[in-house]
């Protein structure tokens, strides 16, 4: 049974339409004008509104204009004894579904109402489908039953309801973008775009044009106007991944956008208003970077209104079996196969430290599923560095001396050692070395400068 609202200042039409559509099995409510109709709709929404255009106090067009602010999808059919091209054009511009002139054929109006209700049903089905998609892609797609992850889930649900900027921190591979998408998917902005960009993948000039857009002729190759990602994310969410890699000059420009909610495309004189929720992410310590003068302190506080720190996988080992099962099912579904994990294999996976976190585990399972010919994943399908991993041996190597040690200095030396080893393995190729260390090339170059070994990379490349 559908809920119809009939709006007309003439009692005869209200009575006629009430009788007609009650006989059709619909639930009927009536209003004398647009203002009364809005009051009724606040009490209870309607599936379809059948309304006169010309009425005292508030006419149908003004009613529809106000209605679209709160009920953008409700079906509206207009009827009038004074039809005109102008009023019909205005009605359709505001989203009216149909327009019929008085006196009208009752059977024709019944058909219009039927088609409008069918359209509403499709809209509802589409909305339910999108909601189901969001649920599948939101928190339910982030696996973890540990107390640490349950706290993250609760934070996601809380943060999704507000509009504040969010800073997601955590090591590479912990799932920062998944969390950002979950926040968007559970928010009131879910129907609008989710735009993601890796700030470390662009030079300063390219990043500015990507974020803010540009106008034709603003630089060589700008043959047309191009919308920036902030504009593309209007009413939605923009995810700024690896924000710690952003240059100081771009940090200033981003800060202004966050303060003013306006962007100026490259080469343009005028600014555009944007309404995009900002979620940023980084695997770097932005607080320390701000103290060191590498990241603007005012921008840090602007983007970290709500901080979310994702724990590394080694701090939640109880989640590993669930994650393994999740990835096995994921990759088996792609090939139409069914597999289990041998107990010895699972033991090795649980014992490993997972420096690359969930991403490394996912790639490991993908490889194992692809290589396994049977229906049980055996230890032989795991990489050697996992099967040969011995936590007791590693613990012995890291025994704390009786007289203690300077931890900061020790970690600095350890960091430098791994950078040099990565360069050795890749013959000085910085891109490949960065991949081995699971970091951005820009981050690796920062470490080369920090440890004063940039020349070492060049020497290895030249074979000196």
Describe the overall structure:
Helix content is 50%, strand content 13%. With 464 residues, the protein is an alpha/beta fold. The strands form five sheets. The chain has a five-stranded parallel beta sheet, with helices on both faces. Strands 7-10-13-6-14 form a five-stranded parallel beta sheet. Strands 8-9 form a two-stranded antiparallel sheet. A hairpin with an 8-residue loop joins strand 11 (262-263) and strand 12 (272-273). The protein is elongated. The termini are far apart.
List the helices and strands and how they pair.
Elements: E1 3-7, H1 11-23, E2 27-31, H2 34-43, E3 48-52, H3 60-70, E4 75-80, H4 85-93, E5 98-101, H5 106-137, H6 147-160, E6 166-169, H7 176-185, E7 194-198, H8 204-212, E8 213-214, E9 226-227, H9 229-232, E10 237-241, H10 248-260, E11 262-263, E12 272-273, E13 277-282, H11 286-291, H12 297-303, E14 306-309, H13 320-335, E15 340-341, H14 343-351, H15 357-371, E16 376-377, H16 384-387, H17 391-397, H18 407-425, H19 430-436, H20 441-450, H21 454-462
Parallel strand pairs: 1-2, 1-3, 3-4, 4-5, 6-13, 6-14, 7-10, 10-13, 15-16
Antiparallel strand pairs: 8-9, 11-12
Helix pairs in contact: 2-3, 5-7, 6-7, 13-15, 18-19, 19-20
């Amino acid at each position: 049974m559908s809920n119809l609202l009939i709006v007309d200042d003439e009692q005869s039409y209200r009575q006629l339409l009430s009788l007609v559509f009650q006989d059709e099995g619909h639930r009927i409510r009536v209003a004398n004008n647009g203002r009364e109709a809005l009051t009724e709709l606040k009490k209870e929404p309607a599936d379809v509104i059948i309304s006169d255009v010309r009425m005292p106090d508030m006419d149908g067009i003004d009613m529809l204009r106000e209605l679209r602010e709160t009920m953008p999808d409700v079906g509206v059919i207009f009827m009038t004894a004074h039809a005109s091209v102008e009023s019909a054009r205005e009605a359709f511009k505001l989203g009216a579904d149909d327009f019929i002139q008085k006196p009208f054929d009752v059977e024709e109006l019944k058909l219009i109402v039927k088609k409008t209700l069918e359209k509403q049903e499709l809209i509802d089905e589409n909305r339910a489908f999108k909601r189901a998609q969001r649920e599948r892609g939101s928190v339910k797609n982030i696996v973890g039953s540990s107390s640490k992850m349950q706290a993250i889930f609760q934070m996601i649900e809380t943060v999704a309801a507000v509009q504040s900027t969010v800073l997601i921190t955590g090591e590479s591979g912990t799932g920062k973008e998944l969390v950002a998408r979950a926040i968007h998917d559970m928010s009131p902005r879910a129907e609008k775009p989710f735009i993601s960009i890796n700030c470390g993948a662009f030079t300063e000039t390219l990043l500015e044009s990507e974020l803010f857009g540009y106008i034709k002729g603003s630089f060589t190759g700008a043959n047309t106007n191009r919308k920036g990602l902030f504009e593309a994310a209007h009413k939605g969410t923009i995810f700024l991944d690896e924000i710690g890699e952003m240059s100081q000059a771009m940090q200033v420009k981003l800060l202004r956008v966050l303060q003013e909610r306006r962007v100026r495309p490259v080469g343009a004189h005028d600014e555009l208003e944007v309404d995009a929720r900002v979620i940023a992410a980084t695997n770097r310590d932005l607080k320390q970077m701000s103290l060191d003068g590498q990241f603007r302190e005012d921008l840090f506080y602007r983007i970290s209104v709500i901080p979310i720190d994702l724990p590394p996988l080694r701090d939640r080992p109880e989640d590993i079996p669930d994650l393994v099962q999740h990835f096995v099912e994921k990759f088996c579904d792609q090939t139409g196969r069914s597999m289990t994990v041998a107990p010895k294999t699972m033991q090795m996976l649980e014992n490993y430290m997972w420096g690359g976190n969930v991403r490394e585990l996912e790639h490991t399972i993908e490889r194992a599923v692809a290589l396994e010919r049977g229906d049980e994943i055996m230890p032989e399908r795991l990489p050697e560095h996992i099967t040969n991993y011995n936590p007791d041996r590693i613990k012995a190597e890291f025994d704390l001396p009786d007289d203690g040690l300077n931890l900061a200095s020790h970690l600095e030396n350890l960091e430098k050692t791994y950078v040099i080893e990565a360069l050795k393995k890749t013959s000085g190729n910085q891109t490949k070395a960065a991949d081995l260390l699971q970091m951005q090339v820009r981050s690796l170059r920062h470490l080369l400068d920090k440890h004063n070994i940039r020349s070492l990379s060049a020497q290895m490349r030249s074979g000196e």
